[in-house]
Design goal:
The chain has 157 residues and is of the alpha+beta class. It is built from 6 helices and 6 strands. Helix 1 packs across helix 3 (35-42).
Length: 157
């Protein structure tokens, strides 16, 4: 793996570890850092887009998406070239300046106009506010084991 790619994946893992170990996600650190492995695997999928906010060598936030209809199917919608916003994370120290919105918009702008899907924690107040402000709506509630996630849809303009 090229050094630059390995460096980005390490930085993503560190950022995910800092974000997703906090409430409401409260993931164990090892599980939270697996975001980097999923990103590396998803990088080979159609429509992969990554946006990252860097300050020096540190990632302050990142978002990525792929062409995928899995969430559409979970929400009982017929798939039709959907995209999924797989992850959006902003370090706690970088919040409150619109960084999440800019990362969100950059990822969505890179793909053709289509239906977009995401899954988020029902108590992720800041994320829900951003998504609703950007035209997302709850399409389904998905319960799996001991987790509940909101499946959200943003239809093409």
């Amino acid at each position: 793996m090229p050094h630059e790619v390995n460096h980005v994946l390490t930085a993503v893992a560190e950022a995910a570890g800092e974000v997703f170990t906090r409430l409401p996600w409260a993931e164990p650190p090892k599980k939270a850092r697996r975001v980097a492995a999923r990103l590396a695997a998803d990088a080979h999928m159609p429509g992969f887009t990554l946006a990252a906010a860097l300050h020096g060598d540190q990632i302050h936030g990142f978002a990525y998406s792929v062409r995928c209809s899995r969430l559409a199917l979970l929400a009982s919608h017929l798939p039709h070239g959907d995209f999924t916003l797989k992850e959006l994370a902003v370090l706690p120290t970088a919040r409150g300046c619109g960084l999440g919105m800019r990362l969100h918009d950059a990822v969505l702008a890179a793909a053709p106009a289509t239906s977009w899907w995401l899954a988020t924690h029902p108590r992720a107040a800041a994320a829900l506010a951003l998504y609703r402000h950007r035209g997302w709506r709850v399409a389904a509630i998905h319960k799996h084991r001991d987790q509940t996630r909101l499946i959200m849809l943003r239809e093409a303009d």
